């Protein structure tokens, strides 16, 4: 079972998710339950959309859904990196402005 917190409640518990008709019992951290539930709904929605649009078999739907969701993760990661780069550039610009103001 999971680790015990000071209040006696375990920080992990078991949930059951159903993805593409398959059942997955998973031990997860309590605070992540909503993440898993939303991910379950999103994956199933993407699979259903591919199934309706392309009329391909289940394995192809799963593969296309995995690819689509991975692309989304990569886009978010790259956007995060760009936001970080922009923030660093703004900081450098501020430092240059201060330096040039002192000259």
Quick overview:
With 103 residues, this protein is an alpha+beta fold. The chain has helices at 33-54, 58-102, and strands at 12-19, 22-29.
Strand order of the largest sheet: 1-2
Number of β-strand runs = 2
Q: Kindly estimate the percentage of residues that lie in beta strands according to DSSP.
A: 15-25%
**Helix- and strand-based class?**
alpha+beta
In round numbers, the mean pLDDT is 85
**Rg from C-alpha positions?**
22 Å
**Sheet having the most strands:** 2 strands, antiparallel
Which percent range fits the helix content? 55-70%
Order of secondary-structure elements = EEHH
State the end-to-end CA separation. 64 Å
Q: pLDDT under 50 segments (min length 5)? A: none
Total of helices: 2
* Shape, principal axes of CA atoms: elongated
Describe what you observe in this structure:
Helix content is 65%, strand content 16%. By secondary structure, the protein is α+β, with helices and mostly antiparallel strands. A two-stranded antiparallel sheet has the order 1-2.
Write the layout of secondary structure elements.
Blueprint: E1 12-19, E2 22-29, H1 33-54, H2 58-102
Antiparallel strand pairs: 1-2
Helix pairs in contact: 1-2
List keywords for this structure.
single chain; about 100 residues; alpha+beta; 2 strands; about 65% helix; elongated
């Amino acid at each position: 079972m999971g680790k015990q917190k000071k209040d006696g409640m375990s920080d992990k518990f078991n949930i059951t998710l159903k993805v593409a008709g398959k059942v997955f019992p998973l031990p997860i951290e309590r605070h992540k339950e909503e993440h898993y539930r939303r991910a379950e709904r999103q994956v199933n929605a993407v699979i259903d959309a591919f199934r309706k649009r392309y009329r391909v078999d289940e394995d192809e739907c799963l593969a296309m859904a995995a690819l689509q969701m991975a692309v989304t993760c990569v886009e978010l990661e790259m956007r995060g990196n760009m936001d970080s780069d922009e923030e660093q550039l703004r900081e450098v610009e501020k430092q240059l402005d201060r330096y040039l103001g002192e000259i």
